[in-house]
């Protein structure tokens, strides 16, 4: 890797990290697992003046089980998330989606917080954050700020973080009993980002859908909540007889899918419909 | 008893691997020399433009910068990058300056360079170079490039050459032919992606020059660089240290190699350049990129009368080392394993404003095999036969070998029946066909397809006389030297240049058998023109079939010399001395000497036969009489999700016949890697240029390579029909997998989609492309139905009014 030159610091506490970040000015960047930032540096698409490596900040790491939510620290690696009994019990959708990220090497370095802070609509976790209505916790010298997922993803690679703010982690609401989950990812190779992905959570009772949360990966400059599908699916039979497919037909509504080498917008829209149907079926376990 | 067991044929683990995979070795980029400088190249952002101004002055002032050069600085001495294969008398070989001086013709062409104290400073200073361009029209599409009024890449126009071959009466074959298949296939452009990027280190002491390069061809490179730069050959040493893969991409004389030599000559200091992956995608020569029109004339029963091929081959902007010859290597293979009465081949090489193409694993033969094997499937559908049956009716029978094909090659040996029967059994062909029928009946959204590829290829490049008749600039012999050391161990010097193939292991096995020394007692020296003065290097699956034979011959000479010494010491006649398992024994006695004892005695030279030169060492240069022709049957089953267009390979069976096998583990590795690469062309890889001529696939996020997770378990087996043209009976295994796999996969996909009216899917068969093909078919089918309904309505009306 031949990046442009930059200063590097590796603080060992969150306070120190905030201080360094504050001093370093607007062009400083937090370095987490480096799995998205380093490729940008390599291609000289980013020219940060300072990298603040938070890899040694213990406070940012770990998973905590609270009464109504699970807190996942920003520096928790993908690998740790997948292995966490707490995550698998209370918010399995996070583990399901994380398990589809890249390959073992990347999952041992890449972090939960880095994936959210990078705000890549092709990343698998932003849509999950949206579907689960996570609350993201950012800290600056002024204290903590809670940002709902619905407000966090401002634009392509643009999170609602201010300069000097560090993402501490996210509160993932426990949805309680009766919910089924699925993350349906379509990608061209095992290591590749999602061409389209669908995060679905469905609450059923007596064979009908009571409530559903559906969010889409890589269907616009930000992750997209498929609200039309969520409305259409409410109250329909949770079976293979066609009503889920019908609801899924509206998956691309309101989305603004990008066109690139892997898919043109119309194909992405088509995939969103097919994959949403599959995700709903799987989340309903039918 | 291990000492009577033959080494050849054993699945030896490769002795070189521990060193290679633990990094205790020297890749070119690891080389550090005192005072070494680093080179970074500025590359053209334009596909086609005139260079109107180059100002490097600001870059000269940047930190750490020692020198900055533009093309004009080298104009007087840089010469033209060589093309060693002028395929026709009138082939156009444009001047190809290593650094562009007045015009750029593809994105990525070097236009200036910075030499600095470290790599980062060199890269930083590139920003400060100012270049003005006057844009010219890019030339991107081969067909349009040949049309009247097209903008031109070179003043001479866009046609590089037209090369023709014909045998038999093609007009007769097609006249009133009951069946004619006429198809156009696209061989997309590929980017060879060796694991080790290219790297060059150049140094001089003012008199002698040494070039380290991650190359497949140190020997050829030395000759070519001497001719290009004017540095006399005897003062130039080329070293290929350990090299991490090439696939043909390092069978080249590159601009960077020439320029690094010129820079070191200018500055008197060592310089290094290592490409980044993106730089590599732009400027490593590309592969394939052909438009293939193939027509097959056949009888109703599926027997082929003749094949006609019309090829456009994209040369890119210039002709590099063997650019124009690549499609010709396929010219003799479009007839495949089949018998026919007429064959007609025409290839036109076309210039475009893209990176030049050149050899890439298989070089010409994968393209040929793809076209004929795809066409065989289409023929099967047309005549209503199982695709394997059509092949059976046409292929050369085992009893017919040796067989001279319509393309003029003599296939020395082969057994297509045996390989096919084995493959069908391993695959469970009939059961899969039954499942396919069931899925079709059920209109399962996931359809099953079965693809066949019964391939052959020519390797062991090559008889020098044949290469000469094809206007190639060099021969195809190979050289080996065997040195018996005083302690009885053996040093081999080979002219082949391994870059991942495991020659050190295979050569040790051959020597162990030939001289009766332990496998462990053999070492192999390669890749340095100072220690291995003679060689033709490694490409075209030639190393074992040519270099291995030179080694066998050198070993024979050593043995014969040793026999003389042994006979002398045992006071017997040489005719009475037998050799086996490393021992010379007087026939009918127990008197014996080991070859190690003979080596020591020869070294001491106290008591040698009268007039005997005191050495056992020997050299041999082997030039084959013929190519060798591996073959095999590959079968692939795919599931195609018709809702998403995604293809999943369900099973893959490969039964290859590479002749005698020296090391089954190495062959297995070559077959696995080859299949992976062939599948990659079918499903994943494509170099994409946009309408302005910018390469879009500059990273591995855009240029997709499969990993193990994307591939099925390969079921592999072998039949063994020895080559009759060399003493080892070997054929070559380096490219077979790549050649066979691509049509097997695409045939399977098309087979899965036949019920939807699909007749072809262009490669790579991405999910989107499969989906669009289905969408288009659905539209067309609906239109056809509508027309049929209208016609019926019309007829009804007519009927009513009549
Ligand atoms: C080959 C490959 C394949 C991949 N495939 C996928 C995939 O399929 N799906 C997927 O979702 N991802 C994929 N990724 C990305 C991977 O998930 C990354 O881990 C993730 O995008 C970023 O996490 P990171 O810890 O590496 O962050 P970094 O790269 O270190 O940082 C990313 C960005 O977030 C900012 N940032 C990081 N942490 C914080 C913080 N605590 N506070 C404030 N800002 C912060 C950084 O400043 C930077 O701008 C892939 C990566 C690679 C290399």
UniProtKB/TrEMBL annotation, chain A:
<dbReference type="InterPro" id="IPR036683">
    <property type="entry name" value="CO_DH_flav_C_dom_sf"/>
</dbReference>
<dbReference type="InterPro" id="IPR016169">
    <property type="entry name" value="FAD-bd_PCMH_sub2"/>
</dbReference>
<feature type="region of interest" description="Disordered">
    <location>
        <begin position="244"/>
        <end position="264"/>
    </location>
</feature>
<dbReference type="InterPro" id="IPR036318">
    <property type="entry name" value="FAD-bd_PCMH-like_sf"/>
</dbReference>
<feature type="domain" description="FAD-binding PCMH-type">
    <location>
        <begin position="1"/>
        <end position="177"/>
    </location>
</feature>
<dbReference type="InterPro" id="IPR051312">
    <property type="entry name" value="Diverse_Substr_Oxidored"/>
</dbReference>
<keyword id="KW-0274">FAD</keyword>
<dbReference type="GO" id="GO:0071949">
    <property type="term" value="F:FAD binding"/>
</dbReference>
<dbReference type="InterPro" id="IPR002346">
    <property type="entry name" value="Mopterin_DH_FAD-bd"/>
</dbReference>
<keyword id="KW-0285">Flavoprotein</keyword>
<dbReference type="InterPro" id="IPR016167">
    <property type="entry name" value="FAD-bd_PCMH_sub1"/>
</dbReference>
<keyword id="KW-0560">Oxidoreductase</keyword>
<dbReference type="InterPro" id="IPR005107">
    <property type="entry name" value="CO_DH_flav_C"/>
</dbReference>
<dbReference type="Pfam" id="PF00941">
    <property type="entry name" value="FAD_binding_5"/>
</dbReference>
<dbReference type="GO" id="GO:0016491">
    <property type="term" value="F:oxidoreductase activity"/>
</dbReference>
<dbReference type="Pfam" id="PF03450">
    <property type="entry name" value="CO_deh_flav_C"/>
</dbReference>
<dbReference type="InterPro" id="IPR016166">
    <property type="entry name" value="FAD-bd_PCMH"/>
</dbReference>
<protein>
    <submittedName>
        <fullName>Carbon-monoxide dehydrogenase medium subunit</fullName>
    </submittedName>
</protein>
Automatic annotation (TrEMBL), chain B:
<protein>
    <submittedName>
        <fullName>Carbon-monoxide dehydrogenase large subunit</fullName>
    </submittedName>
</protein>
<keyword id="KW-0560">Oxidoreductase</keyword>
<feature type="domain" description="Aldehyde oxidase/xanthine dehydrogenase a/b hammerhead">
    <location>
        <begin position="22"/>
        <end position="137"/>
    </location>
</feature>
<dbReference type="InterPro" id="IPR037165">
    <property type="entry name" value="AldOxase/xan_DH_Mopterin-bd_sf"/>
</dbReference>
<dbReference type="GO" id="GO:0016491">
    <property type="term" value="F:oxidoreductase activity"/>
</dbReference>
<dbReference type="InterPro" id="IPR008274">
    <property type="entry name" value="AldOxase/xan_DH_MoCoBD1"/>
</dbReference>
<dbReference type="Pfam" id="PF02738">
    <property type="entry name" value="MoCoBD_1"/>
</dbReference>
<dbReference type="InterPro" id="IPR036856">
    <property type="entry name" value="Ald_Oxase/Xan_DH_a/b_sf"/>
</dbReference>
<dbReference type="Pfam" id="PF01315">
    <property type="entry name" value="Ald_Xan_dh_C"/>
</dbReference>
<dbReference type="InterPro" id="IPR046867">
    <property type="entry name" value="AldOxase/xan_DH_MoCoBD2"/>
</dbReference>
<dbReference type="InterPro" id="IPR016208">
    <property type="entry name" value="Ald_Oxase/xanthine_DH-like"/>
</dbReference>
<keyword id="KW-0500">Molybdenum</keyword>
<dbReference type="InterPro" id="IPR000674">
    <property type="entry name" value="Ald_Oxase/Xan_DH_a/b"/>
</dbReference>
<dbReference type="GO" id="GO:0005506">
    <property type="term" value="F:iron ion binding"/>
</dbReference>
<dbReference type="Pfam" id="PF20256">
    <property type="entry name" value="MoCoBD_2"/>
</dbReference>
């Amino acid at each position: 890797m031949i990046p442009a030159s930059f200063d590097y610091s590796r603080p060992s506490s969150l306070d120190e990290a905030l201080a360094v970040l504050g001093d370093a000015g607007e062009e400083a960047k937090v370095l987490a697992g480096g799995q998205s930032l380093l490729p940008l540096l390599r291609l000289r698409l980013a020219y940060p003046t300072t990298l603040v490596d938070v890899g040694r900040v213990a406070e940012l790491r770990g998973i905590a089980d609270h009464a109504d939510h699970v807190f996942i620290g920003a520096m928790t690696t993908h690998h740790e998330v997948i292995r966490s009994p707490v995550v698998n019990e209370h918010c399995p959708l996070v583990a399901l989606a994380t398990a589809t990220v890249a390959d073992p090497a990347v999952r041992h370095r890449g972090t939960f917080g880095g994936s959210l802070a990078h705000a890549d609509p092709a990343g698998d976790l932003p849509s999950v954050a949206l579907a689960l209505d996570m609350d993201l916790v950012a800290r600056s010298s002024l204290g903590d700020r809670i940002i709902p997922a619905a407000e966090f993803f401002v634009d392509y690679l643009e999170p609602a973080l201010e300069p000097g703010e560090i993402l501490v982690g996210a509160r993932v609401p426990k949805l309680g009993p009766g919910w089924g989950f699925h993350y349906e990812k379509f990608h061209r190779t095992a290591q590749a980002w999602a061409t389209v992905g669908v995060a679905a959570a469905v609450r059923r009772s007596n064979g009908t859908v009571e409530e559903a949360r559906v969010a889409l990966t890589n269907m616009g400059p930000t992750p997209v909540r498929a609200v039309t599908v969520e409305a259409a699916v409410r109250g329909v039979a949770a079976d293979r007889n066609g009503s889920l497919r019908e609801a899924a037909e509206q998956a691309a509504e309101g989305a603004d899918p990008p066109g690139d080498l892997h898919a043109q917008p119309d194909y992405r829209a088509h995939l969103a419909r097919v994959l949403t149907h599959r995700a709903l079926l799987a989340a309903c376990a039918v | 008893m291990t000492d009577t067991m033959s080494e050849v044929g054993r699945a030896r683990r490769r002795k070189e691997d521990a060193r290679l995979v633990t990094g205790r070795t020297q890749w070119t980029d690891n080389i550090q020399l005192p005072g070494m400088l680093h080179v970074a190249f500025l590359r053209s952002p334009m596909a086609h433009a005139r260079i109107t101004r180059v100002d490097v002055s600001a870059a000269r002032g940047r930190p750490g910068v020692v020198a900055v050069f533009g093309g004009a600085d080298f104009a007087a001495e840089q010469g033209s990058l060589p093309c060693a294969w002028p395929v026709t008398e009138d082939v156009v070989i444009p001047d190809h300056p290593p650094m562009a001086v007045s015009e750029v013709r593809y994105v990525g062409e070097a236009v200036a360079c910075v030499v600095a104290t470290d790599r980062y400073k060199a890269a930083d200073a590139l920003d400060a170079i100012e270049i003005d361009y006057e844009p010219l029209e890019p030339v991107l599409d081969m067909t349009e490039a040949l049309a009247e009024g097209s903008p031109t890449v070179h003043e001479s126009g866009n046609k590089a050459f037209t090369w023709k071959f014909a045998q038999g009466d093609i007009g007769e074959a097609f006249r009133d032919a009951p069946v004619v298949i006429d198809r156009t296939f696209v061989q997309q452009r590929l980017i060879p992606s060796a694991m080790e990027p290219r790297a060059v280190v150049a140094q001089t002491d003012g008199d002698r020059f040494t070039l380290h390069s991650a190359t497949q061809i140190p020997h050829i490179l030395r000759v070519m660089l001497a001719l290009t730069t004017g540095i006399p050959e005897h003062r130039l040493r080329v070293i290929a240290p350990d090299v991490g893969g090439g696939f043909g991409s390092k069978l080249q004389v590159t601009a960077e190699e020439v320029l690094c030599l010129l820079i070191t000559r200018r500055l008197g200091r060592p310089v290094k350049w290592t490409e980044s992956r993106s730089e590599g995608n732009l400027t490593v020569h590309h592969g394939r990129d052909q438009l293939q029109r193939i027509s097959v004339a056949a009888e109703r029963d599926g027997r082929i009368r003749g094949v006609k091929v019309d090829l456009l081959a994209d040369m890119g902007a210039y002709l590099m080392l063997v650019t124009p010859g690549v499609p010709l290597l396929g010219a003799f293979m479009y007839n495949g394993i089949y018998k026919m009465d007429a064959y007609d081949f025409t290839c036109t090489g076309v210039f475009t404003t893209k990176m030049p193409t050149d050899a890439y694993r298989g070089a010409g033969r994968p393209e040929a095999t793809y076209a004929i094997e795809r066409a065989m499937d289409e023929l099967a559908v047309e005549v209503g036969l199982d695709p394997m049956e059509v092949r059976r009716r046409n292929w050369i029978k085992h009893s017919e070998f040796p067989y001279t094909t319509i393309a003029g090659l003599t296939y020395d040996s082969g057994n297509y029946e045996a390989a096919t029967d084995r493959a069908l059994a391993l695959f469970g062909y009939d059961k899969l066909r039954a499942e396919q029928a069931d899925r079709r009946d059920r209109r399962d959204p996931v359809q099953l397809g079965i693809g066949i590829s019964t391939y052959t290829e020519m390797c062991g490049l090559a008889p020098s006389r044949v290469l000469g008749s094809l206007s190639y600039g060099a021969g195809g012999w190979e050289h080996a030297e065997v040195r018996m050391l005083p302690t009885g161990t053996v040093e081999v010097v080979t002219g082949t240049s391994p870059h991942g193939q495991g020659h050190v292991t295979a050569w040790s096995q051959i020597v162990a058998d030939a001289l009766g020394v332990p496998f462990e007692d053999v070492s192999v020296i390669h890749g340095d023109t100072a220690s291995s003065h003679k060689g033709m290097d490694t490409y075209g699956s030639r190393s074992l079939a040519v270099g291995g034979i030179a080694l066998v011959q050198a070993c024979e000479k050593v043995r014969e010399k040793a026999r003389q010494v042994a006979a002398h010491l045992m006071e017997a006649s040489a005719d009475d001395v037998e050799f086996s398992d490393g021992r010379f024994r007087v026939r009918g006695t127990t008197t014996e000497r080991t070859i190690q004892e003979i080596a020591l005695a020869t070294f001491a030279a106290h008591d040698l036969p009268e007039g005997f030169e005191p050495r056992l060492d020997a050299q041999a240069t082997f030039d084959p009489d013929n190519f060798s022709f591996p073959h095999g049957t590959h079968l692939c089953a795919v599931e195609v999700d018709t809702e998403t267009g995604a293809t999943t390979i369900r099973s893959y069976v490969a039964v290859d016949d590479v002749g005698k096998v020296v090391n089954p583990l190495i062959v297995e590795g070559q077959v696995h890697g080859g299949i992976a690469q062939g599948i990659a062309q079918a499903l994943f890889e494509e170099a994409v240029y946009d309408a302005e001529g910018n390469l879009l696939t500059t990273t591995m996020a855009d240029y997709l390579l499969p990993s193990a997770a994307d591939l099925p378990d390969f079921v592999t087996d072998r039949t063994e029909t020895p080559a009759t043209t060399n003493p080892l009976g070997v054929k070559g295994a380096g490219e077979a997998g790549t050649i066979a796999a691509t049509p097997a996969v695409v045939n399977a996909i098309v087979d899965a989609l036949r019920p939807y009216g699909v007749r072809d899917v262009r490669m790579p068969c991405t999910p989107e492309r499969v989906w669009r093909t289905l969408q288009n078919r659905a539209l067309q089918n609906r239109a056809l139905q509508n027309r049929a309904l209208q016609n019926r309505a019309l007829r009804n009306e007519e009927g009513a009014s009549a």
